[in-house]
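Lecture notes, unit on binding sites. The following record was shown on slide 14. It pairs a sequence with thymidine-5'-diphosphate.
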Amino acid sequence: MTPARLITLEGGEGAGKSTVARGLQARLAERAIRSLVTREPGGSTKAEAIREALLVGQVKPYGPFAEAIMFYAARIDHIEKTIRPALARGEWVISDRFADSTRAYQGALGQIDPALLASLERVALAGFRPDITLILDVPVEIGLARAAARRGSGATDRFESEGRGFHARLRKAYLDIAEREPDRCIVLDASLPPDDVLEMAWAAVEMRALAEASHADADTALP
Ligand code: TYD
């Protein structure tokens, strides 16, 4: 039996994460692997309530570290109520955003000591981490144009409305994470057509998560 995996999708605005999430779920289903697609902030009842407050900017006046703490409050509930139970049932979990979003977004706001963010992550996650993280990388202009097209005449949210400099720092923050943690992270060129991005994402999952899973199966099968 393939052990259940946590796959996280990361990237800036308009990278196409939710399309890849659904596509991966369909590919896993073809292999008879059940999976749950979830998202952050949110993914559990209490975390969805916190999402509301964060995305309308209610926490913004308290400063970026308070926002980071609120993202973590939501994440802790999401892990306990949704992610761990699904993994325990043997379902794979595909999360549209996870802890790297806090590193990248709250880090890119530029007012939090990276060491402080790292300690928050260490305390809150206590070693829990994704098996594989796909970072959907897209040039800032393309990402913002896609996000604007998706939004139509609706208002920008708390982070979409940050300036271009923020989005450029964000992109770099993600690429830095990938460089520091190559075992976990894979960068995909998300400026390509959606079908191609999904193909690359699936190839990465097959190579990293499924291949490792079959090795693990082989290991446990040894006398
Ligand atoms: P969402 O509408 O889900 O955006 P997207 O489609 O880009 O994922 O909104 C989530 C927003 O919250 C997004 O702008 C990224 C931001 N965010 C953080 O700043 N920190 C975090 O830890 C997380 C999970 C999200």
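Take-home: Helices lie at 17-30, 45-55, 64-88, 99-108, 114-125, 140-151, 164-180, 194-221.
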